[in-house]
Amino acid sequence: MVEKIQQTLRDSAAMRWTVLLLLAFAMFCSYIFMDILSPIKDLMQSTRGWDSTAFGTMQGSETFLNVFIFFLIFAGIILDKMGVRFTAILSGVVMLVGATINWYAVTESFQGSGLDTWFTNNLNYIPGFDELGISPFYKGMPASAKFAAVGFMIFGCGVEMAGITVSRGIVKWFKGREMALAMGSEMALARLGVASCMIFSPVFAKLGGNIDVSRSVAFGVILLLVALIMFIVYFFADKKLDAQTGEAEEKDDPFKLSDLGKIMSSMGFWLVALLCVLYYSAIFPFQKYAVNMLQCNLTFNPVDPNSFWATNTVTIIQYCIMLVVAAAAFASNFSKTKGMKYGLLALAVVSLIIFCYMGYMRQSAETIFAVFPLLAVGITPILGNYVDHKGKAASMLVIGSVLLIICHLTFAFILPMFQGNAIGGVVVAYVTILVLGASFSLVPASLWPSVPKLVDSKIIGSAYALIFWVQNIGLWLFPLLIGKVLDKTNPQLVADLKSGIITPEEAAISYNYTAPLVMLACLGGAALILGFILKAVDKKKGLGLELPNIQK
Ligand SMILES: C[C@H](NC(=O)[C@@H](N)CCCCN)C(=O)O
C-alpha cells in the first residue's frame, strides 16, 4: 500500500514543493512586471510626458480585455478544455508578448517612429466604449502611453490566466495535503515580487547616471522569459504526474458556462466577490501611485550622489536584508520549538528595523514603500495558518477593512501635516505602510480560502474565474479614476505645467493626493459594511466562514 502511494510524483513532499516553487516563482516574476512602472511614475512624466491621466489610463488598461472582452471567463474555459500545463505555457507566452510590446512603447526607438506617428493620430477612442467613458485611449494621450496600454492589456490577459491556472495547479498537486500553506506561500512570493520591483525598477531606470525608463521594463521582460521557462519545466513534471496517475488533465473538475448560474445564485459568493472588488480596488491601484504619493507628501533631503547611501551596493545590501526579513518570518511558521519560532521572529523584526533605517537614510520613497508588500510576505502564511486552525475569516475581513480606512485617511490628512519634518514624516509613513501591510495580509489570507466554503467544490475553478473577473472591473476602473481625480483636483499644477511655469520634474512630485486617498478610504468603508453583512449572513445561514478550515 505504502509502496503504491510513493509511486506518484505528488506523493513526494520534495517534488510537490519543487513544483510549487516553479509556479510561485513564475508568479513572482509576473508580479514584478505588473508594477514595474509604479515606482517610476515621476520619470514617466518627466521623460515620456505621461501626466497622471495618461499614467492611470495605461495602468488601468491591464484589465481592460479581461473585463470588457470577458477574457477571464474564456481563460477559465481554456483552462478546462486544455488543462493546467497547456494553459500555463499559453499564459506565459501571452504575458511575454504583451510585455515586449509594452517595453518597445517606452524605448527611445519608439519616439519618432512610424508607430509613434500612427498612434498619435489614431486610436483616439474606441467607438461604443468612448461614449460610455470607458475607453483605454483618449485624444491627446501620448502615443507611447497608448502603445504601452496595448501591450499591458495583452500582458493583463496572460497574468490573470496565469493566476487561475496556478491556483488550479496547486489544487492538483496539493489537494488533501498542505494546500492552504502552499497557496499562502505562493501569495507571499508574489508579494516579494512587488517589493523587489519597488526597489529595483528605479535603480535600472537611473543606472549609470542617465535616465532610461525602458531599462526597468526590459528587466521585467527578462523575468517573464524566466517565468515562461518555469512553466515549461512545470509542463514536464505535470505530464509525468498524469502518466503516473493515468488521469486525463482536469477532466474531474470541468468549467461549464452553466456553472456560472449556480455560482451567481449564491448570496455569500456575491458578498465575498463585492468585498473583494472593493478591497482590492483600494490596494492594487493605490500600489501604482503610492511611491509618487510619498514623493509628493514627504520632504526628502537630497542624498549626496557620492555618498555611500547613493550607491547600488546599498540597494543590494538592503535587498538582502529584505530577503532575511521575508525568509525569517516565513520560516517561523515551520519551526518546531517555541524558542526557534521567537528567535526567527526576533531576527525578522530586527532586520525590518534595519531595512526601514536604510530606507530613511537613502531618502527614497520607493524603498520606504517596499516595506508594504514585505510585511505581507511575512505574515500572510501566519494568518493563513490561523484561519486553518482557528477560523475567524469573516472577522479578519472586517478588521482588514477597518485598518485600510485608517491608513488611507492617515495618508490623506495626517501625513501632509508632517511636510517639512523629514523624520516625523518618514516615521508616520512607515507606521501607516506597515499597518496597511497587515491589512493586506488579513484580507487575502481570509478571503481566498473562504471561497470553497461558499460554492460546491466541483465549480471552484469557475468561481475563482468569476471572482477575478469582478475584481478586474475595479482594478481597471480605479487606477484610471485616481489619475483623473489627481489631475482634476490639482488644476493649478496642471495649468502651470501646461504654461511652462513649472517643469515636468517639479510637477511630478507636487500633487495633492487628498481627494484620491479619501476616495480609496470610501472603498474601504463600503468593504467594511459588506464585511458586517457577510458576518450576519454567515451567522444566519451557517456558511461556516468563522470556522477553522481544519476540523479536529
Ligand atoms: C491571489 C490574489 N490575486 C489576484 O487577485 C489576481 N487577480 C491578481 C491581480 C493583480 C492585478 N494587478 C492576490 O494577489 O492576492
From TrEMBL:
Main location: membrane
Keywords from the named record: Lysosome, Membrane, Transmembrane, Transmembrane helix, Transport
Subcellular location: Lysosome membrane
Highest taxon, organism lineage: Bacteria
Membrane-related topology note: Multi-pass membrane protein
Alphabetized Gene3D superfamilies for the sequence: MFS general substrate transporter like domains
Residue intervals passing through the bilayer: 20-40, 60-79, 86-106, 147-167, 188-205, 217-237, 267-287, 307-330, 342-361, 367-387, 394-415, 427-447, 459-482, 513-534
Reaction equation(s) it catalyzes: L-alpha-aminoacyl-L-lysine(out) = L-alpha-aminoacyl-L-lysine(in); L-arginyl-glycine(out) = L-arginyl-glycine(in); L-histidyl-glycine(out) = L-histidyl-glycine(in); L-histidyl-L-alpha-amino acid(out) = L-histidyl-L-alpha-amino acid(in)
Family annotation (SUPFAM superfamilies): MFS general substrate transporter (SSF103473)
Family, per entry: Belongs to the major facilitator superfamily.
Database matches in PANTHER family: MAJOR FACILITATOR SUPERFAMILY DOMAIN-CONTAINING PROTEIN 1
Function: Lysosomal dipeptide uniporter that selectively exports lysine, arginine or histidine-containing dipeptides with a net positive charge from the lysosome lumen into the cytosol. Could play a role in a specific type of protein O-glycosylation indirectly regulating macrophages migration and tissue invasion. Also essential for liver homeostasis.
Assembly with partners or alone: Homodimer. Interacts with lysosomal protein GLMP (via lumenal domain); the interaction starts while both proteins are still in the endoplasmic reticulum and is required for stabilization of MFSD1 in lysosomes but has no direct effect on its targeting to lysosomes or transporter activity.
Protein name as it appears in the record: Lysosomal dipeptide transporter MFSD1
UniProt organism field: Butyricimonas hominis
